[in-house]
Amino acid sequence: MIKFYHRIRIIDKGRQVMQELREKMWLIIAFFLGVSLITDAIYLCIMVAQHQPAEIALADTKPAVISGDIFIGGAVARPGIYSARCDDTLTSLVSSAGPSTNADTSHISIVIPDKTAASQPQKVNLNRAESWLLQALPGIGEGKARMIIDYRTKNGPFRSVDDLAKIEGFGKSIVDKVKDYAVVGD
Predict the structure, then answer these.
(1) Closest CA to 137 of 147, 186, 153
(2) 129-178: pLDDT as tens digits
(3) Tell me: the pLDDT tens digits for 78-102?
(4) How far apart are CA 144 and CA 124, in angstroms?
(5) How far apart are CA 85 and CA 93, in angstroms?
(6) Count of Cβ atoms closer than 10 Å to residue 52 Cβ
(7) Residue pair 113/119 in contact by the 8 Å Cβ criterion
(8) Contact 141, 164 (CB under 8 A)
(9) What's the per-residue H, E or C state across the chain?
(10) What is the model's pTM?
(11) Of residues 97, 91, 89, 95, the one with CA closest to residue 66
């Protein structure tokens, strides 16, 4: 009986030890949760303090008055310079140039030069220009424009503006007139 009693005491003592360990474990868990909550609260306060809303003041602006000459080119039937009035819209100006069937009117490029900047004339790319654009070059009419296109189709792209002299009927004087207004590219 003493052995039995002794075993019960050992079992009771083991239960007490386990109970104490559980209580300590819950205390440790509660402590770490409390520290975590306090740390998160401090972090949140710092983040909120750093992200104060900024006040934005918008100035009253007047819409730009567009008037003067506007060049419209690209995928249009009638490229050229159009006079713009203050009541014209971009849509009406593009419509007057007659967008072609393959024109992408969702991507329109508008370039407004600075008044103080020296205006550089746009140069005509001999390897890509269509007939109407080649005719804008000095000394080049409809016939010579056709000859340039035929030559580059037959012989490949021009390597320099001086290659125009290789075309029958083009002399040094025409090449010299065109030289400042033409380039060759890809």
Answers:
(1) 147
(2) 888 889 888 888 899 999 999 999 999 898 888 999 999 988 888 889 88
(3) 777 777 777 777 788 888 888 888 8
(4) 15
(5) 10
(6) 7
(7) yes
(8) no
(9) CHHHHHHHHHHHHHHHHHHHHHHHHHHHHHHHHHHHHHHHHHHHHHHHHHCCCCCCCCCCCCCCCCCEEEEECCCECCCEEEEECCCCCHHHHHHHHCECCCCCCCCCCCCCCCCCCCCCCCCEECCCCCHHHHCCCCCCCHHHHHHHHHHHHHHCCCCCHHHHHHCCCCCHHHHHHHCCCEECCC
(10) 0.40
(11) 89
Pairing of strands 124-125, 182-183: parallel
The pair of structure tokens assigned to 158 is: 């021009």
Q: Are 127 and 155 in contact (CB under 8 A)?
A: no
Average pLDDT score over the chain: 79
173's tokens? 């004087």
Structure tokens at 100: 């072609």
The mean pLDDT value for 23-51 works out to: 82
The tokens describing 160, both together, are 């320099």
C-alpha span between 174 and 178 (Å, rounded): 6
Joined together, the tokens standing for residue 23 give: 């209580």
